Amino acid sequence: MTDTNCQPTNLLGLDLDGLVALCQELGEKRFRATQLFRWIHQRGEADFAQMTDLAKSLRSKLAGVAEVTAPPVLSEHESRDGTIKWLFDMGGGNAIETVYIPESDRGTLCISSQAGCAVGCRFCSTGHQGFSRNLSSAEIVAQLWYAEHFLRRRSGRAERVISNVVMMGMGEPLQNYRQLVPSLRIMLDDHAYGLSRRRVTVSTSGVVPLIDRLAQDCPVALAVSLHAPDDALRDHLVPLNRKHPIDELLAACTAYLAHAPRDFLTFEYCMLDGVNDRPEQARALVQLVRRHEPAGLRCKFNLIPFNPFPASGLQRSSDAAIGAFARILSNAGLVTTVRKTRGDDIDAACGQLVGEVQDRTHAGQRMAERRAAMQHHRGGAARRAPKIRMIP
Ligand code: SF4
Fold this sequence. Notes:
The chain has helices spanning 16-25, 30-42, 56-65, 125-129, 137-155, 177-188, 208-217, 231-237, 246-256, 279-292, 319-331, 352-361, 365-378; strands at residues 9-10, 66-67, 73-78, 84-91, 94-103, 106-110, 114-116, 131-134, 164-167, 200-204, 221-225, 265-271, 299-305, 335-338. It has 392 residues and is of the alpha/beta class. It folds into two domains: 9-67, Orthogonal Bundle (DNA polymerase, domain 1); 73-378, Alpha-Beta Barrel (TIM Barrel), CATH 3.20.20. Helix 7 packs parallel to helix 9 (246-256) and helix 10 packs parallel to helix 11 (319-331). The longest helix has 19 residues, at 137-155. Iron/sulfur cluster binds at residues 117, 119-121, 124, 126-127, 170-172, 205, 225.
């Protein structure tokens, strides 16, 4: 199975059904697909010659039509708290970020789904860079494959290191739906990573029709970027809201819960100083949830201290404002957490490293011009000089 340009198929992007189809095309039995799947994802093997329980004839057939390969790593940053951020080269001047966040009871990997993003949220560094392209399922899964086996090798552990995946890196995952679903199936498959549906989270800015489809095709945990208690403000912060306003979004969220692996969903709320962090806005949020509770909405809130970047013209809410906001939600009975800031010493906002690299190499001229125009428009400060260790 090769693509129309006779490029080898990257097996990282094939779920088990896809591998079965490949094996049948090569005249092999179905169980060979399971063996191959395990070699690739459970053992991290990329060299067909090393897959010793596969017949030699199959190994040589595979070598002619397929490959197992992750994109090149441009840089790797490790924080004092153990957070690791990789920058992968996606070709054509594009790069994406993947972040590993270790905690005492879990290891979480934050994965990108697109190079850039078309949604254009005001507080997001990736959104300010514009959209370049969708990632293939191989490029999405490659982030998990690379990180998992890198971490296992480094720690000398044979068992799984990454227990949770969040599709919260660069891109709107539901706007890359066709590549997202097989990627999720690979993450969940017991012959591959065997992650629990409860521990794989898709985070969306609110692509309502595809929330409905995900409920049917591959229901995993859902997080929704809310960021505002009313349409007027959300139209401004998350432009997709003009197409799918808050009531429509919350109705889709409520319907999703009938299929979801958890009985609640998470609302992400980025805390922006003087924009969405006032006590009356917390109270409006409580009212919003109350309006949808009779239909079955169950949710928790995750307040995210904004990670400032110069082109945004926005500032992080004070700790006092975040605390007061959280108390209003909690006192109203809404489970509320404040996200810990991790890896602060290795970079700033999600997507910012990519912007720095593109500035440095001048590969992303279009994005740089867009940022410059925004800075001019908002009177923003000049960007910091990049501080990135490049991997040759
Ligand atoms: S927050 Fe997410 S959806 Fe919004 S611009 Fe950034 S990557 Fe895109």
